[in-house]
Amino acid sequence: MEQLRMNMALDASIDTGIDNGNDNLSTHANNAIYVNIIPEIPDGYYMRSYAPGDEEDWCRCCYDGEMGVREISAGEFTRFMGGDKRVDLSNIYFLVSETDGIVGTVTYQYGHTACEAYIHMVGIDGAHRGRGLSRCMLQYALHKIASDGNAFVRLSTDDWRLPAIKTYLNCGFLPDAPDEDAKMRWRSVYGMLGIK
């Protein structure tokens, strides 16, 4: 089944021309101005960009998230990220715990147009889930995307990733529901999240 899609305009003054299929699906405003927002990283953690040698840690963050990462190796990292021409390695960000090392990752890919980006491969170690850390990682990436001059961000996710979808909605993403099937799936997700 095709993944659900979401989008966000980083500058509300820009008409993206994207039909988000709102149809009363969202109560969230899609007007995030992330260029001016510096995300707060919880005490004991910090964010940094990719450096050579981070490949296995990246795999470890994504391994048990059902994102298709099958092994923890530099080769697996290369399969996902190294060969992706839309990924600049400096746009792979890591959440680092002062006690446990790298515990989370988020990447942004370049989009199909000059002002567009994609959120890609958000993963966090299971021992650090449930603390709101995915939200601060996502906000960090959105700040970088906006600071790089992008005006529009997209992502795709699976229906069953409810905690991730809730985080995306809380950060300002809206459903992209271009047809009745997508609208029906989004209504189901909203129902499971208790959103009316």
Would you give an account of this structure?
The protein has 196 residues and is of the alpha+beta class. It has one domain: Gcn5-related N-acetyltransferase (GNAT) (Aminopeptidase, 3-Layer(aba) Sandwich), CATH 3.40.630.30. The protein is built from five helices and seven strands, in the order ββααβββαβαβα. The chain has helices at residues 55-63, 74-82, 133-147, 162-170, 180-193; strands at residues 4-9, 45-49, 92-97, 101-110, 116-124, 152-157, 174-176. Helix 1 (55-63) packs across helix 2. The longest helix is centred in the C-terminal third of the chain and has 15 residues, at 133-147. The chain is globular and about 45 Å long. The two termini are 25 Å apart.
Can I get a quick summary?
This protein has 196 residues and is α+β, with helices and mostly antiparallel strands. It contains 5 helices and 7 strands. The model is unreliable at 12-31 (pLDDT under 50).
Observed structural traits:
196 residues, alpha+beta, Aminopeptidase, seven-stranded mixed sheet, globular
* Helix run count: 5
Strand content: 15-25%
What profile does the largest beta sheet have? Answer: 7 strands, mixed
**Rounded average pLDDT:** 85
List the helices and strands and how they pair.
Blueprint lengths: L3 E6 L35 E5 L5 H9 L10 H9 L9 E6 L3 E10 L5 E9 L8 H15 L4 E6 L4 H9 L3 E3 L3 H14 L3
Parallel strand pairs: 5-6
Antiparallel strand pairs: 1-6, 1-7, 2-3, 3-4, 4-5
Helix pairs in contact: 1-2
